[in-house]
Amino acid sequence: xxxxxxxxxxxxxxxxxxxxxxxxxxxxxxxxxxxxxxxxxxxxxxxxxxxxxxxxxxxxxxxxxxxxxxxxxxxxxxxxxxxxxxxxxxxxxxxxxxxxxxxxxxxxxxxxxxxxxxxxxxxxxxxxxxxxxxxxxxxxxxxxxxxxxxxxxxxxxxxxxxxxxxxxxxxxxxxxxxxxxxxxxxxxxxxxxxxxxxxxxxxxxxxxxxxxxxxxxxxxxxxxxxxxxxxxxxxxxxxxxxxxxxxxxxxxxxxxxxxxxxxxxxxxxxxxxxxxxxxxxxxxxxxxxxxxxxxxxxxxxxxxxxxxxxxxxxxxxxxxxxxxxxxxxxxxxxxxxxxxxxxxxxxxxxxxxxxxxxxx
Amino acid sequence: xxxxxxxxxxxxxxxxxxxxxxxxxxxxxxxxxxxxxxxxxxxxxxxxxxxxxxxxxxxxxxxxxxxxxxxxxxxxxxxxxxxxxxxxxxxxx
Lengths: 360, 93
What we know:
The complex is a heterodimer of chains A (360) and B (93). Helix content of chain A is 37%, strand content 25%. Chain A contains 10 helices and 13 strands. Chain A is globular. Chain A starts with 11 loop residues before the first strand and ends with a strand. The mean pLDDT of chain A is 95. The A-B interface holds A 41-44, 46-48, 51, 188-190, 193, 233, 248-251, 254 and B 19, 21, 39-42, 44-45, 47-48, 51-52, 55-58.
């Protein structure tokens, strides 16, 4: 995208850090841990195990050891644990991303902190500033509630900012500790599916404006948000006394099938592009049915979303961090060549989608 | 309609109105997918609710012959009357 003076103001994505908490549990270990709890209400436990296996996740990294979760009973206990773990994991991922970008905390001008799995005031970005010593004039934009779309939307909003401040550097930090939102006493089917799908993780994208010294990497050429009216109950939280109770309908794959093709084609056409021009598709790892819906609607070859499938199998759906995990792996891939076009896309509560056009 | 089927109908009505937020009537002739607008998640919630209430197991094979609310009520009533053999581990004390 050119400025009035004819200069390309598209910001650069310099690096994407990824961090996972240290406690890993395989899907079978998690099923075993849930089985006794499920049996307090449900009769056909094999059906529930099949639901857990159907999401095609091999295991999840957890903020806490598996045995620590049953003692978390109140919203306060869960959220206090979230603040501690989110700050630890957030610091680790920001340090990793800044190292990869060959930058220091003092060179950061703006932090976009996205999450949907816990709340904190001051927000986690302020706590990271104290630990990492960002400058006193760094700007903070904490974003809560966008859910899975927030990784892509965070990059899009950071890029919008950097077009106005082309000499600046912005971080998009996504920290999602889905395990700490789990309502153990909610034995509804949507919650049981969510407990099989969502994992914990954090990602940090380092973006630099077009005029920042030494900026390089793929450029954020444009972005497009899409809002689907009257879809509030498709995904989200009902906030209850014990925390965040998941709202999850099976309509998500259908929404993808109905809309994403028209959304993507319209977005690409604005830039004189067609789907066939896109070499890298960076898709949010919503779940098997969502990835299949992306493939079907966009008529993608079987291996096109290989990184998203692998990420889903390895770590589960990390909400907003997921698409940044896939983006980071794409950035580090030798397959991405100068001149390549890419599209990053994610969907989340609203219901809505965000598409980001990238050029290497 | 047999007494057991009526009992199953009552439970189907409870699940679709209370757990699946269905606002309309629930009749035996209604198609589960077309009329009650149940998606895969809704069908799973319904099956699990019936399994829990009547202590039965419903399988993929069972689902093949079920299209309407009445089909489902009949299947569940039959399964309650003639339960499948318990699995070996459940036969243990």
